[in-house]
């Protein structure tokens, strides 16, 4: 009897070792092994229908998902990475950039005006496929412009982060983009515009230590790695073995670092819901303010007093140009 | 001005205006100097710069982090708040100070002291010297990323004058967390970079022995950071490096610090805060492609019109 038990245990252990390893490519699920065609993948929002594993989504496809099939126009695609340090590691930085651009990507973040459901917003999605989604000068600049735009339009900012951190090839300039991205979020603080951050896999390093941690509402995707230092670095430095769920979205939820872990298939509804809750019907539109300003300077002044700070300058400009003043 | 200080400034001025880029060996020497074990740390500078330093401990949320030293003091007959990253000199102190790698408690303590400075209208001076924020599972659990992010935000929101000085090595977000100030300065032989040469060598070259190569690629020296507009001034050190003469190093630092504080006091609070935002908004370097018709660049089919 006893011998039989031992044998079974051994068999099991051997079995466990022999378990075939599934190649981690883009079309087969690393968790359950289900295989999908590219078409199915897009249709399923890159979520495994049998086990719910979330695959990585590129920036463009992410915005397609958020737009729900509507077309959108990329803002500021002309901004491209420079090479301030003339940086070369195993290959030159410019070559890495060319390679990434040849995949059809403009930079590690894509910004657009969007309607999620019926709620308008400025949306930015990071793309891990472009140099690990790293934050360089262009990401900082685009984020800044996105925040500026959200403040001007007085619509929420939605950012989907997927990044390894600051872009090392831009050295200390990339580090400073952390500060720049926080300055950008401060525009929205002053303009009283809500920010929603969705943490996709992975959000680490300088991105998690700057704007990604500063959303008013912060959601994480299931299984996403969210940590400042990568697990490998921690294991090397502290020589402690980390639990497999270290830094995962679910762990960070219990650590109090995110508001919820949201399934990608429910993401649009959740975002729309949040934006609907915080929306203010009574907020005057800047375009409307312009119309009022044309009607008369004194009326514009009254309107300006009632307006939030962001649109005052629109009115001011009209007042200056008004010859009757 | 004493002759030695004048000499030091002249020597540094020549070095900063040199047209020749620094060689890999020069950069590596500076990296070594920045981490010299006799180099003055915040607790060496503080008694030489300020009088009546009173250390404040704990973040009032979880614990105290000895890797960050924070407190209040008198500086030229005015109150001031000082926050610095403290490494240790011997093995025991190094372990105690966690090699100058702060955890979330350290940054939250810093924010608490900044809030106090804001309340009493005292300038905030930060002394940066860290290989990076501490990479540990417990630090992550308590929100290392969020602590750094809110520290950056807190510094941006302060209405009092702020000065950040890199006195040794300033690496990664762990350094930037207390480096978002009105004036940022670096000591002559200090470094400021996105990551330590060792970390970069392990990640980019996948080989821990390429630190020297990594340092040459990152060019993290004060002269370069000055050239890129990351820092406003470079503070000269005594001949041979700050570790040779702590008193002289503090005296030189004092000259630059007092001038910066006096200049900043002259600017109205709101304007100063706006300038601080604009200062960090400007930093960056990118190309701008001339797109023939940006309206035609539709989703998913961006044309590269280079």
Describe this structure in words.
The complex is a heterodimer of chains A (325) and B (306). Chain A contains 13 helices and 9 strands. In chain A, 45% of the residues lie in helices and 14% in strands. Chain A is globular, with a radius of gyration of 24 Å. Chain A is α/β, with parallel strands linked by helices. Chain A folds into 3 domains: 1-54, no CATH class; 56-278, 2-enoyl-CoA Hydratase, Chain A, domain 1, CATH 3.90.226.10; 286-321, no CATH class. In chain A, strands 1, 3, 4, 5, 6, 7, 8 and 9 form an 8-stranded mixed beta sheet that branches. Chain B is α/β, with parallel strands linked by helices and 306 residues long. Chain B has a single domain (3-296), classed as 2-enoyl-CoA Hydratase, Chain A, domain 1. In chain B, 45% of the residues lie in helices and 17% in strands. Chain B contains 13 helices and 9 strands. Chain B has helices at residues 3-16, 24-34, 42-49, 91-96, 104-120, 137-141, 144-157, 172-176, 197-204, 211-218, 222-227, 246-266, 269-282; strands at 51-55, 68-75, 78-85, 124-130, 162-171, 183-187, 191-193, 233-235, 286-288. In chain B, strands 1, 2, 3, 4, 5, 6, 7 and 8 form an 8-stranded mixed beta sheet that branches. In chain B, strand 2 (68-75) and strand 3 form a beta hairpin. In chain B, helix 2 (24-34) packs across helix 10 (211-218), helix 3 packs across helix 12 and helix 9 crosses helix 10 (211-218). The relative contact order of chain B is 0.14. Chains A and B meet through helix 3, strand 2, helix 5, helix 6 and helix 7 of A and helix 6, helix 7, helix 8, helix 9 and helix 10 of B. Strand 2 of chain A pairs antiparallel with strand 9 of chain B.
What can be said about this structure in brief?
The complex is a heterodimer of chains A (about 325) and B (about 300). Chain A is α/β, with parallel strands linked by helices and about 325 residues long.
């Amino acid at each position: 009897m006893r011998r039989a038990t031992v044998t079974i245990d051994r068999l099991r252990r051997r079995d466990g070792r022999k378990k075939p390893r599934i190649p981690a490519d883009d079309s087969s699920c690393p968790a359950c092994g289900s295989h999908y065609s590219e078409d199915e993948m897009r249709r399923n929002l890159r979520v495994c229908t049998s086990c719910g594993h979330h695959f990585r989504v590129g920036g463009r496809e992410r915005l397609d998902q958020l737009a729900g099939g509507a077309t959108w126009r990329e803002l500021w695609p002309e901004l491209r990475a420079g090479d301030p340090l003339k940086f070369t590691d195993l290959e030159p930085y410019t070559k890495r950039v060319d390679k990434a651009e040849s995949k059809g990507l403009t930079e590690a973040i894509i910004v657009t005006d969007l309607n999620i459901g019926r709620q308008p917003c400025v949306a930015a999605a990071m793309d891990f496929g472009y140099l690990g989604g790293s934050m360089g000068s262009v990401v900082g600049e685009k984020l800044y412009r996105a925040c500026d735009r959200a403040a001007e339009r007085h619509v929420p900012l939605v950012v989907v982060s997927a990044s390894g951190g600051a872009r090392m090839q831009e050295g200390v300039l990339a580090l400073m983009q952390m500060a720049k991205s926080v300055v950008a979020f401060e525009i929205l603080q002053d303009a009283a515009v809500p920010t929603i951050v969705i943490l996709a896999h992975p959000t680490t390093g300088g991105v998690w230590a700057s704007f990604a941690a500063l959303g008013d509402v912060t959601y994480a995707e299931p299984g996403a790695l969210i940590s400042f230092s990568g697990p490998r670095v921690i294991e090397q430095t502290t020589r402690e073995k980390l639990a497999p769920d270290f830094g995962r979205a679910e762990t960070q939820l219990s650590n109090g670092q995110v508001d919820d872990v949201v399934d990608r298939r429910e993401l649009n509804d959740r975002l729309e819901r949040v934006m609907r809750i915080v929306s203010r019907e009574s907020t005057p539109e800047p375009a409307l303010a312009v119309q009022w300003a044309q009607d008369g300077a004194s009326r514009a002044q009254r309107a300006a007093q009632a307006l939030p700070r962001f649109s005052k300058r629109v009115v001011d400009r009209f007042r200056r140009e008004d010859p009757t003043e | 001005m004493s002759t030695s200080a004048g000499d030091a400034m002249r020597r540094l001025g020549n070095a900063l205006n040199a047209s020749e880029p620094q060689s890999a060996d020069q950069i590596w020497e500076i990296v070594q100097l920045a981490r010299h074990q006799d180099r003055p740390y915040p607790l060496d500078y503080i008694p030489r710069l300020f009088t009546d330093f009173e250390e404040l401990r704990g973040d009032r949320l979880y614990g105290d982090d000895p890797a960050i030293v924070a407190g209040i003091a008198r500086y030229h007959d005015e109150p001031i708040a000082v926050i610095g990253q403290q490494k240790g000199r011997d093995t025991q102190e190094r372990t105690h100070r966690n090699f100058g790698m702060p955890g979330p408690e350290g940054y939250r303590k810093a924010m608490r002291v900044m809030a106090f400075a804001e309340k009493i209208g005292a300038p905030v001076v930060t002394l940066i010297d860290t290989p990076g924020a501490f990479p540990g599972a417990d630090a992550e659990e308590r929100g290392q990323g969020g602590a750094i992010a809110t520290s950056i935000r807190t510094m941006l929101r302060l209405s009092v004058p702020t000065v950040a000085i890199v006195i040794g090595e300033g690496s990664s977000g762990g350094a930037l967390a207390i480096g978002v100030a009105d004036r940022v300065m670096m000591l002559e032989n200090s470094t400021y970079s996105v990551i330590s040469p060792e970390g970069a060598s392990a990640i980019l070259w996948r080989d821990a022995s390429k630190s020297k190569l990594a340092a040459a690629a990152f060019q993290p020296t004060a002269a370069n950071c000055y050239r890129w507009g990351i820092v406003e001034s470079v503070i000269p050190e005594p001949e041979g490096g700050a570790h040779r003469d702590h008193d002289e190093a503090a005296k030189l630092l004092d000259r630059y610090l007092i001038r910066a504080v006096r200049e900043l006091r002259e600017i109205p609070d709101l304007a100063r805060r706006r300038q601080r935002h604009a200062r960090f908004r400007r930093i960056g370097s990118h190309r701008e492609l001339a797109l023939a018709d940006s309206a035609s660049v539709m989703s998913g089919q961006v044309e590269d019109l280079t």
